[in-house]
Design brief:
With 55 residues, this protein is mainly α. The chain is built from 3 helices and no strands. The longest helix is centred in the first third of the chain and has 20 residues. It is elongated. 5% of the residues are buried.
């Protein structure tokens, strides 16, 4: 995979996370909550499912 494609994928993933958090119910998250969400995403859960686990 070329560097440009890899960079585009990274930017898309970051933007997806931004949309997820900006559309969420909470105004702010603790460091631990963010780490838990990112861990769940890294383990293969969809971002929306990972966020819903905090409720």
């Amino acid at each position: 995979m070329c560097d440009k494609v890899r960079d585009d994928i990274r930017k898309a993933m970051l933007y997806d996370l931004r949309l997820l958090f900006s559309g969420g119910e909470k105004e702010s998250y603790t460091k631990q909550e963010l780490l838990d969400i990112l861990d769940q995403i890294a383990l293969g859960k969809s971002p929306r499912v990972a966020l819903s686990l905090l409720k």
